[in-house]
Amino acid sequence: MAKLLIEDEADVVIIGTGAGGATAARVLAGAGLSLVMLEEGPLLRTADRPVELIHAMRRAMRDFGTFTTRGTHPFPLLQGRCVGGSTAINSGIIWRIPEDVRRDWIDNHGLEQLVEEKGLERAFDIIEDELQVAETGEQIAGNNALAMKRAAEKLGLPGKPMRRNAKNCQGSGECLQGCPNEARQSMDVSYVPRAMRDGARLHAMCRATKVRIERGRAVGVEGVVIDPETKRPHGRFFIRARRAVIVAASVIWTPVLLRRSGLRGLVGDRLQLHPGSAVVGKFPEPISMGTGATQAFEIPMRDRGFKIESLTLPPEMLATRLPGAGPAWQRMLTDLDHYAQWASIIRMKAHGTVRPAFAAALTENSAAQSDADVRFTPLERDMRVMREALSTICRLMFAAGATEVYPGIARLPQVMTDVSQVELIERADITHADVHMMCSHLFGTAVAGRDAATSVVGPDLQTHDVRDLYVMDASVFPTNMGVNPQHTIMALVWRAAERLAAQARAAA
Amino acid sequence: MKLLAFERKNVHAILEAFAPYDTKDGLAPQMGEVDYVHAYELIADAGTDRARLGVRAALWITLLAPIWMGIAFASMKSLPIDKRAEIIDRMLASNTFIVRELALLMKIGAAFALMGTRSVRARSNYDRKAGVTPRSEPIMLRPNRNAPRAFPLVAHTSGSV
User: Fold this and answer.
1) Could you report the per-residue pLDDT of A136-149, keeping only the tens digit for each?
2) Is the Cβ pair A288, B128 closer than 8 Å?
């Protein structure tokens, strides 16, 4: 048995420091509760986050972005693994929950208490104020976004500047590597330090492996301390929770942890995603993707089931995305400042599952313990939406003046030079084997609802089966939304954490 | 993931074929300018167990491509560089998902090695209009392990560590 390195105790133990966990910490520490935050990844200070992608991704992203769904056509699920979670690698895009989704959660899932309009608006307002949410101005948007704006106007599509939690964005285009100016208010520079100023304690490089449950109540969290050099466990920890354990380990790792802790039922079911794929275009004038906000302009088409976003790529990824190898590829590499990339995110209807990896049950091996079995296969309908999204991006590219467009769809031309070729996409029967998908918006797997037979947690986000065990991340979403989830995660958690704090005060 | 000597030689032979040295018209690294093998090992090391398996499978599928494509009874390393590039190009355009994806893994290795080399990145003109200086020192694909760490990766604000 590995040595016990850390033993601690607090009113509340929070697993995960992403949008959910950090927001819970912000509210609960602010209310005077003693807290311990657990984070599997390292604490990365801004000065220590390298701009070179290979090192940046190794440090901040889970498994270098290689964690994928299982099955015959896997695709990557991108997540942060550092203090701040995925907020430390995303672009800080802010969307309030769409009204049709809010209504659905009330009508079909009994969540009127959680998403009550006025309470939710109040939470959104506070968070937007604290995280300096603002519309991205044209002066720092960059040509990648401005070209999309031009195209949207030309085609009459409903484009708009993104709202982001980066009011003082300098347009460095390095959100993925870590904002060099700390303008983006990711959790590692906002709510985690704020909670710590209010007395919360942080244990980084600590992977929770089990919630300890005694007599039907969560009483603590056990796990392993990871060596930052070898990435292997070198000891154990146990943190006792006097009042509650909050699991906010993400849509993949929350159900894995809950199942390892003995919860069953619908835990890990109803995984929903927003997978996406991107199109690159070459322009006669410089686009200079490296200058400007990583993401700044979007075309929400929720009625069609998708959303289009400008998305700056670092040169390593851009080079990968350009078609071919050898001399033709080399010619493309000499003008990397002339390319734009726009991505789609699809609100897929398919449901998947998440389970602990089989190997993890057999071994104490570190890598196996941090593996999960994620199954997700898009429906035919989902791929029809993907096809429409990709063809729309291609049309936008040509409308913006691209001379070459690379749709990145197998069995179709890799280079399109005329808008008439876009019809080839519109006529094609595109399957998920034909496109390079990836996904960073995940939902479900511990869904909230009033009915214990159809949900894992109640409207207060406490599990139906275990007292004082809460789930506070996007796992509780009954459905996906068609927009970026971070802000809604934070607002739901804000409300649930306020309720938990009030109960703690009353009990005291 | 530690590659065998034979695998390392083939990684280099495959990845250098993405951007041959002697090309006049296009971005061509100089001989020895890019450490392909180390970049590939860094990527493999950072991935999941399954990803490591994929990285190795990508290498073997590619290095044996001349045989299973019916081009020559030889590994990639023994073919001229332009032939290697042609084979990789065909793999990347394959209609078979697994072939295309594994070839893409090799391409990711090549792209990260190339663009992770500061001098090559400069010649790609990615930063041409940016007017900004990269804030890091020249890339070190081989980090100096003896250099002092700027800060502790582990934060334990309490507990008996």
Assistant:
1) 999 999 999 999 99
2) yes
Instruction: Tell me the average pLDDT of chain A.
Output: 94
Selecting from B116, B127, B141 the residue whose C-beta is nearest the C-beta of A316 gives: B116
Question: Chain B contact for A419, CB < 8 A?
Answer: no
- B99 occurs within a structural domain: yes
Contact of A165 with A88, CB cutoff 8 Å: no
Per-residue pLDDT of B85-127, as tens digits, reads 999 999 999 989 999 999 999 999 999 999 999 899 999 999 8
Residues of B in contact with A237 (CB under 8 A): 159
Pick the CATH number of A133-175+276-347+379-436 from 3.30.410, 3.30.250, 3.40.50, 3.30.70: 3.30.410
Give the distance from residue B40's alpha carbon to the nearest chain A alpha carbon, in angstroms: 10
Tens of pLDDT, residues B31-58: 889 999 999 998 888 888 888 889 999 9
With an 8 Å Cβ cutoff, is A408 touching chain B? no
Rg (C-alpha) for chain B, rounded Å, is 18
Decide if B134 is inside a domain: no
Domain extent at residue B38 = 5-124
**Residues in B touching A43 (Cβ below 8 Å):** 151-155
Model pLDDT, residue A231:
80
Contact A48 B46 (CB under 8 A): no
pLDDT reported for residue B148: 40
State the pLDDT at residue A508: 80
The helix (run of H) or strand (run of E) holding residue A298 is strand A297-301
Considering its fold, how many domains does chain B have in total?
Answer: 1
Position B12 pLDDT exceeds 80:
yes
Q: Give the fold, CATH level 3, of A1-90+95-130+186-271+353-377+443-508.
A: FAD/NAD(P)-binding domain (3.50.50)
What are the structural domain ranges in chain A?
1-90+95-130+186-271+353-377+443-508, 133-175+276-347+379-436
